[in-house]
Design brief:
The chain is α+β, with helices and mostly antiparallel strands. It has 5 helices and 8 strands; from the N terminus they run ββαααβββαβαββ. The structure holds coenzyme A. Coenzyme A binds next to strand 5, helix 4 and helix 5.
Length: 180
């Protein structure tokens, strides 16, 4: 468990899956993600079984926020493609509860993930991909310290047109372990 003042990250449980099915079938949530095919509960169950067999560092975590009634599960975050020789990994995240967007929770979750990646897993570089029209996400990543490093032109097809995919990264030497 990675715990901050307002956000904490914990392993995903089977009981969380119905929420993922709702969030990952919501067009507004997935417009920034790579998924586009409708997802079922049984597919999510297979996904969880798969990740439990996979590399421990790539197991996604649930994002929970501190609410008056206790910790509330609002989204997910995880590393992919961890490369132990070059010590880098890709990170991805989403807040599925849309009314909690723009309140700093995504940025705080990402800051906790950077601490886990750099201090816990001893990574050297953490990178991500974001679609050019996802301005909220780009702004959040810039706030957290990611820098722009490249652009894949027209690499994403979305609602009848092609979008550029931006690549951003942060090195351990650039990372400031701010209080979260
Ligand atoms: C992207 C996401 C994780 C960001 O989390 P969040 O909690 O909403 O983001 P934060 O509040 O931490 O930061 C967003 C920042 O962008 C700003 N912002 C919002 N809309 C914006 C826009 N259209 N243009 C520029 N900045 C914008 C916010 O004001 C905020 O900045 P501020 O704190 O300086 O005011 C979340 O919105 C989300 O899950 N979206 C859907 C899934 C997704 O796109 N995931 C990312 C895939 S790469």
């Amino acid at each position: 468990m990675l715990t901050g003042q307002r956000v904490r990250l914990r392993p995903i449980e089977r009981a969380d899956l119905p929420k993922y099915v709702v969030w990952l079938n919501d067009p507004e949530v997935i417009r920034g993600l790579s998924m586009y095919i409708p997802l079922s509960q049984s597919q999510e169950e297979k996904w969880l079984e798969g990740i439990e067999q996979g590399p421990p560092a790539e197991r996604p975590l649930a994002i929970e926020i501190r609410a008056p009634e206790g910790w509330l599960h609002v989204g997910g975050i995880g590393f992919h493609s961890v490369n132990w020789r070059d010590r880098n990994a890709e990170v991805g995240l989403f807040i599925g509860e849309k009314h909690f967007w723009n309140q700093g929770y995504g940025s705080d979750a990402l800051r906790l993930m950077l601490r886990y990646g750099f201090d816990g897993l001893n990574l050297h570089r953490i990178y991500l991909q974001v679609y050019e029209n996802n301005l909220r996400a780009v702004h959040s990543y810039e706030k957290v310290g990611f820098v722009h490093e490249g652009r894949q032109r027209e690499a994403r097809f979305f609602r009848g047109k092609y979008l550029d995919v931006l690549w951003m990264s942060i090195l351990r030497s650039e990372w400031a372990d701010v209080e979260v």
